[in-house]
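Students often ask why inverse folding is considered easier than folding. One informal answer: many sequences map to the same fold, so there is more than one right answer. In these notes we will look at a single instance of the problem. The structure comes first.
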């Protein structure tokens, strides 16, 4: 009986050492880039979701940070650790006259505060009135403040030209004044006003200084549109008052010493005025106190809330972009099933397949993230330059956005990559 010998299978040549060890990261990255380059339009459309999400994150963080910085700088421009004391609502014959409508604080109250409350660094009463200031043929309507040198300390004012008035000038009622930057520019233009003479209600005043620029306060008022003179000069020369209110002030600026508890000093001030104004226990306060640090905290909290809401919208965009990456990667796995089967058949490891598809997803997300960073930073600066929005690009947020885009690609690309790596080579080769 003849025995037919079956041909023996020719063994495949051994894989090179680097193939048996698996693809290197550089080789896997190159393969991933090649796969993305083969479908440029699809890759660009897939990265669009990541691009929009990252750009939105950067813009919202920049606008939110800029808004918070603007609020804090405006509060800081008023003076650090500052409490403003105003007259509270006054009732006369059962009729509510409103807050500050009847003077109930005096210059003497302001002088007594630092003596009675050790935590207070400076306190200055202010009487103010809107008046016309005249220089030559120029005139300007502005707020004229009559106060003491302690007011400059409380509000942390500086001078850009000249000097402040002294205690001796304040107590003697010297006719000297300082101009805010807005007033100085409106009356004198480029000319230095120091040493010049302005008239207020026909009374001549020597300009001894120009106040440093502060800009707008949190209420949008121009702090530089002001003229400051000694309290007794204002009372005797330009404002006047009935005898009963000859020493009255409209508000008192109180600067709390560094490191002291603002809330505790506020309560001490309330007690001080209740005792000084002889307020009964069942009666309401005669003054209203504004803590500017609380206003800053409230506005900062509002800005943070808005930023979080906008960031949540951006996070949804990233989520949608991540789902798009996963969807396209699944399509890519289906399209390249035979290729995957062939690579597995000739000795590629499943880890190589997993690594390549993961790298494709991560690179796809990173490309979208990089484009989003470029557009987001550019848009943030454009809003600041042309839209007048306060923006502050935070580069740690930029780095975080790029890292998040990479993590998004890794997270949403893992399932398609694992699915590709788990394909059976025989079944994959039969795929049509």
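Output (designed amino acids):
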């Amino acid at each position: 009986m003849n025995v037919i010998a079956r041909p023996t299978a020719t063994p495949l040549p051994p894989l090179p050492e680097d193939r048996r060890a698996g693809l290197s990261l550089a080789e896997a990255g190159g393969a991933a880039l090649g796969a993305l380059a083969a479908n440029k339009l699809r890759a660009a459309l897939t990265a669009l979701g990541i691009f929009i999400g990252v750009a939105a994150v950067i813009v919202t963080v920049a606008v939110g940070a800029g808004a918070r910085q603007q609020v804090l700088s405006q509060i800081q421009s008023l003076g650090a650790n500052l409490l403003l004391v105003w007259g509270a609502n006054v009732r006369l014959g059962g009729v509510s006259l409103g807050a500050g409508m009847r003077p109930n604080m005096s210059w003497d109250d302001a002088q007594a505060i630092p003596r009675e409350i050790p935590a207070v660094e400076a306190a200055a009463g202010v009487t103010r009135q809107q008046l016309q200031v005249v220089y030559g043929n120029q005139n300007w309507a502005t707020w004229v403040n009559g106060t003491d040198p302690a007011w400059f300390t409380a509000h942390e004012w500086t001078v850009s030209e000249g000097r402040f008035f002294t205690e001796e000038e304040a107590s003697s009622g010297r006719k000297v004044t300082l101009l805010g930057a807005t007033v100085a520019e409106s009356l004198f233009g480029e000319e230095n006003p120091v040493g010049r003479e302005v008239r207020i209600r026909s009374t001549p005043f020597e300009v001894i200084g120009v106040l440093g620029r502060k800009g707008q306060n949190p209420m949008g008022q121009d702090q530089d549109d002001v003229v400051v003179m000694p309290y007794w000069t204002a009372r005797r020369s330009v404002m006047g008052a009935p005898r009963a209110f000859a020493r009255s002030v409209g508000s008192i600026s109180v600067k709390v010493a560094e490191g002291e508890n603002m809330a505790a000093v506020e309560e001490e001030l309330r007690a001080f005025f209740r005792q000084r104004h002889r307020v009964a226990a069942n009666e309401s306060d005669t003054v209203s106190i504004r803590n500017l640090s609380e206003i800053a905290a409230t506005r900062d909290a509002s800005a943070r809330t808005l930023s979080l809401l906008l960031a949540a919208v951006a996070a949804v965009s990233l989520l949608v972009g991540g789902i798009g990456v996963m969807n396209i990667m699944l399509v890519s796995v289906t399209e390249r099933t035979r290729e995957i089967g062939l690579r597995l058949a000739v000795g590629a490891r499943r880890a190589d397949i997993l690594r390549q598809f993961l790298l494709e997803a991560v690179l796809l997300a990173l490309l979208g993230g990089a484009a989003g960073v470029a557009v987001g930073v550019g848009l943030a600066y454009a809003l600041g330059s042309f839209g007048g929005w306060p923006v502050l690009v935070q580069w740690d947020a930029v780095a975080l956005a790029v890292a998040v885009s990479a993590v998004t690609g890794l997270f949403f690309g893992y399932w398609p990559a694992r699915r590709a790596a788990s394909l059976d080579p025989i079944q994959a080769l039969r795929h049509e």
